[in-house]
Specification:
The structure is a single chain. The chain is of the alpha+beta class. The protein folds into 2 domains: 144 residues, 60s Ribosomal Protein L30, Chain: A (2-Layer Sandwich); 169 residues, Phosphoribosyl-aminoimidazole Synthetase, Chain A, domain 2 (Alpha-Beta Complex), CATH 3.90.650.10. 35% of the residues lie in helices and 24% in strands. The chain is built from 11 helices and 13 strands. It has a 7-stranded mixed beta sheet with strand order 8-10-7-11-9-12-13, with helices on both faces. Helix 2 packs parallel to helix 6. The longest helix is centred in the N-terminal third of the chain and has 18 residues. It binds adenosine-5'-diphosphate and magnesium ion. Adenosine-5'-diphosphate (ADP) binds next to helix 1, strand 4 and strand 5.
């Protein structure tokens, strides 16, 4: 098979283009011109977000396949649009490629990207391709739209608002731990192990759930997607320095897989639920009177939702109320933070 040198930048771009088939009605000109050209819909407001992934900081090619990486990088970006209550339609990609990158790897990466584009109805409308001396680098910029007056931001929560989360946070980071230890010793591929590693390698952004929330009349006051860990991301909703929160341990959702594997391996399931990252679940606050309507709304969703706590007026304090009523302070810094040296890999 050809290598990067033989294909050259333009041969490579042609090759990428031939693997991308999903089109958005918004996009008038895609790959091939100096800019992508697109229209917007009246009554909408535009959302834009970007996210960079660097090999050995964000991913390890020993634990994730190229196709999975393609799907995951787009899923993480889609999750940011979902977190605002929006719908994505266009993405741009920048790639930094070491000379030695196998063309087969790039073919598979674009197959993964195309699968995700199809699933979320996004057109990959362009990008940039450059050489990188050592590590692979992927940046995605995504565009989406939301209904005007129905965008959920991180600020807006008030004391007394209820805190809710979709799905079962913690699964993804436990899945990563299993993948990493699988490199060293053999862990039986049970149903639970498969579930957890799948949650890490192939996360599903909660786009449909975000749409349900955006279309409802429920009074959401803030929303974020859980990418750095439940507690750390919750502190972003507690308008830093102004609000706090109490979480009810008994109400924290936990998957059977997480419970069972933590028990077997002697890990603390609570640590994973509170600090695990890359779940891409939605964490949001809601006016207390609307909390009882949420269950009915989520009957139509693929993912459960749990009421896990309440916003308080104690600045910066995140408290965990135990099953026996005891309370303890949680450190908001227990999550992922780039410049503090707790890289995932
Ligand atoms: P320019 O020189 O104007 O920056 P490029 O030669 O970098 O343009 O890119 C040519 C076309 O290919 C552009 O439309 C660009 O958006 C697209 N493109 C470049 N790299 C990629 C990529 N990795 N994936 C998809 N499209 C790409
Ligand atoms: Mg360029």
């Amino acid at each position: 098979m050809a290598d990067l040198k033989k294909l050259g930048e333009f041969g490579l771009i042609d090759r990428f283009r031939s693997r991308l088939h999903t089109r958005s009605p918004r996009v008038k000109t895609g790959i091939g011109d100096d800019c992508a050209v697109f229209t917007t819909q009246t009554g909408t407001i535009q959302l834009i977000s970007t996210d960079a992934l660097v090999e050995s900081v964000h991913f390890d090619l020993k634990t994730i396949s190229a196709a999975q990486l393609g799907r995951k990088v787009l899923a993480a970006n889609v999750s940011d649009i979902a977190a605002m209550g929006g719908k994505p339609y266009l993405a741009m990609i920048s790639l930094g490629l070491p000379q030695s990158t196998p063309v087969k790897f790039l073919d598979e990466l674009y197959t993964g990207l195309e699968t995700a584009c199809q699933a979320y109805r996004i057109e990959l409308a362009g990008g940039d391709t450059v050489a990188s001396p050592k590590h692979l680098f992927i940046n995605i910029c995504i565009l989406g739209e939301a209904r005007r007056n129905r965008v959920f931001t991180r600020t807006g929560a008030q004391p007394g608002d209820q805190i809710l989360v979709t799905g079962t946070p913690g699964d993804s980071s436990l899945g990563l731990r299993l993948l990493q230890s699988k490199k060293k010793k053999s862990i039986a591929l049970t149903k639970h192990v498969r579930h957890l590693t799948q949650r890490h390698l192939e996360p599903s952004p909660r786009l449909d759930e975000a749409r349900l929330l955006a279309r409802s009349k429920l009074r959401l006051t803030s929303m974020i997607d859980v990418s750095d860990g439940l507690v750390q991301d919750l502190t972003h909703l507690c308008t830093p320095g102004r609000l706090g929160a109490v979480l009810y341990e008994a109400h924290l959702p936990r998957s059977q897989a997480l419970e069972s594997i933590c028990k077997k391996m002697g890990y603390s399931s609570l640590d994973y639920i509170l600090s695990g990252g890359e779940d891409y679940e939605l964490l949001f606050t809601l006016k207390k009177e609307d909390a009882k309507k949420i269950r009915r709304l989520f009957l139509k969703a693929h993912t459960p939702v749990s009421l896990i706590g309440e916003v308080t007026s104690s600045p910066g304090k995140i408290i965990l109320e135990g099953e026996n009523g005891g309370r303890r302070n949680l450190k908001p810094s227990v999550g992922f933070n780039h410049f503090k040296g707790n890289h995932r890999q």
